[in-house]
């Protein structure tokens, strides 16, 4: 113990403090950027209580950015999150199956007859 160093008693995780004990723990890859950090997720009835960086993550080596550590729960459970494909029909977005949405995209891509085409696909991209 160094002079001037203050030691605080260990604090329980916020979810535990308020009675939300996880019934499951899972490892996953954070979807909030392209780094691919490994996270440990605490779940209760399939709902995220919180996340921590995984010590075994080869990419993040036990660290996580603010988004991965604190925002994943809010992003995943956001009421604004799009859960099903949407296809624009007559200027309106309509729900579609994955097969219908992919067929729609394939038909649109057939219009481009050049020798090269570029696509950007990411969970952070929406049109």
Automatic annotation (TrEMBL):
Gene Ontology biological process terms in this record: respiratory electron transport chain
Iron-sulfur listed as a keyword: yes
Occurrences of domain 4Fe-4S Mo/W bis-MGD-type (ranges): 23-79
A Pfam family recorded for this sequence: Molybdop_Fe4S4
Keywords: 4Fe-4S, Iron, Iron-sulfur, Metal-binding, Oxidoreductase
GO CC annotation: membrane
The protein's name: 4Fe-4S Mo/W bis-MGD-type domain-containing protein
